[in-house]
Amino acid sequence: MALSFFSKTPPSIRTRCRDDSATKLRLRYAPYYHAPEWQDGTRIRLGGRDMIMLASNDYLGLSFHPKTIEAARAALHQWGTSTTGARVSNGSRSYHVALEEKLAAFLGKEACQVHSAGYLSCLSALAAFAQKGDIIVADKNIHSCMWDGARLSTATLERFAHNNPEDLRTVAAALPADAPKMLAVEGVYSMEGHIARLPELLATAAEHKMFTVLDDAHGFGVLGCQGRGTADHFGVANQIDIICGSMSKSLGSVGGFVAGDRELIEYLRTHGKHTIFSAALPPAQAAAASAALDIIQNEPEHLARLQENTRRYRQILVGLGFDTWGSETPAIPVVIGDKQKAYAFWQALMEKGVFTVMSIAPAVPPGKDLIRTAISAGHTDAQLEQIADAFAYAKKKAL
Length: 399
Ligand SMILES: Cc1ncc(COP(=O)(O)O)c(C=O)c1O
What we know:
Strands 4-12-11-10-7-5-6 form a seven-stranded mixed β-sheet, with helices on both faces. A four-stranded mixed β-sheet has the order 1-2-3-14. Strands 13-16-15 form a three-stranded antiparallel β-sheet, covered by helices on one side. Helix 3 packs antiparallel against helix 13 and helix 15 (339-351) crosses helix 16 (381-398). 47% of the residues are buried. By secondary structure, the chain is of the alpha/beta class. The termini are far apart. A hairpin with a 2-residue loop joins strand 1 (38-40) and strand 2 (43-46). The radius of gyration is 22 Å and the shape is globular. 43% of the residues lie in helices and 17% in strands. Pyridoxal-5'-phosphate is lined by residues 117-119, 122, 143, 145, 186, 190, 215, 217-218, 246, 248, 256.
């Protein structure tokens, strides 16, 4: 043990916060936490300037659909603003049960549990089912919520190369045969826009009897029949134990879900701390998600428009010679590959009225500094033209 007079006193928590270089850098360059003062779908106003939102996850444009707004408004009047409690005690309402049944049926699962955030759902999909002695085998690019869930589970964690079934096979072959195992992957990786190679990944999972968890936050509403997601896209929903996701993307609401066999969801309700101890999904959010789920099934034009906009937007970017990291979905990164240039590029887009999000290392691998963009069914032809002009301008100005 080091003698106490040699050990340096660590800075206090307050000092650490005050001196944090990442926070100082963020405040100095101010690329994040912008707060528009007005919004109508894909149009926002920021600092008095009208801009196009090109970084939201409102893939189908349903957050401003008249039916979702009306459903949320009616729910507020019927149920008030909050559940003020957890599902296990005073927070359950009949609208939760109805939404869960609807989501389960849509996903081809027996049962479902909703939470107030997608983060809680996807975290608990790992934390509640895995435990000490288990091995979680995860794609190295999974979202922060699944990493948190893995850590909380206290299971052993093994990673495999991003979306690489060959590496999964190698990693799995080296694991002890008798330990219970869980595979944790996403359906669509939102930073890269990649679709998981599910059939090959699941083949290895089956070989090693892995419990399988799919976070389909960005595949839901976008892929598969009527937007049933990545598992449906490949026809493998019955090979996946748990499908979790978010209602803050294609469903235009907030909240998350965990879907699976009834016995799994009942186990989650008994053991999932985030299910047991967190206040239940509020009425307006549940109603908006439920209305969006009806719209997805009854108004196919939104998904068709999203697919068409994705095709045209990708064509614009590729035409301008940008590296889109092989994105196959509406989440399309523009890889710049250098921090300073990415910042200048992002600024140039802002100057031209296009709101995007810059993502730089260590949030992305070194050399992959990028501008994260996502196209929506809500973008108009005129907006696509403005977006094309803005990217051409930013290329000239910043690269
Ligand atoms: C892959 C993935 N999973 C889960 C979440 C969490 O969802 P929410 O933002 O609804 O809490 C996100 C959000 O960005 C996500 O991208």
